[in-house]
Amino acid sequence: MIENFLINYGLIAVFLIATVEVDVAPIMAGVVAHLGYFDFFAATLVAACGAFASDSAWYWLGRWRADSIRASRLYQRTGARVERLIRRFGWWQLPVCRLFYGTRVVTMTFFGIQRRPFRAFLLVDAASCLFWSTLLTGLGFILSGSAELIIGRLKRVELWLLLILLVVISGAIAIQRLVQRGEKKLIGE
């Protein structure tokens, strides 16, 4: 069903789905890109933009409604734990939260509640979205071509794996540098 939606509506559908399902959208976009319906790199970028738009909306919601969220019973029960995690992991929480289902929205909202500087949020989260979208779109692209492995087109897959490995390493280095810059700016504020 998602695959048909992506085929029929293209990159607009990738963006819309990525605002809700930041992990499913890039994987399916990779599959559909492998089928030739749209460009792999465009799908990756659009999925990252959809994820970032969603993350930013949750950040701003947290910032705008911080007082009422802090007054809620749910926040009274869980807020201290989430804030401890954010203090412990700092800006690294933004890319790491995508590994654990259900923590992304909470993390983005709490960064807004804490009124973390949006400029630093923008840099770290945009890099995180691009990193994860590249990884997941590549995964979808590679897995959709598993039949090619069977019929002997291994070289193409190896090149994609190398590209993904380079992107993963580059992304990790970029995120680390952005986090270090963000921490330096926060200390200077």
TrEMBL record:
InterPro entries, A to Z: DedA_domain, VTT_dom
Name by which UniProt lists this protein: Uncharacterized membrane-associated protein
Gene Ontology CC annotations of this record: plasma membrane
Domain of life from the UniProt record: Bacteria
Pfam family, one: VTT_dom
Signal peptide residues on this chain, from the entry's feature table: none
Species the sequence originates in: Pyrinomonas methylaliphatogenes
Transmembrane spans: 7-28, 40-61, 120-147, 159-179
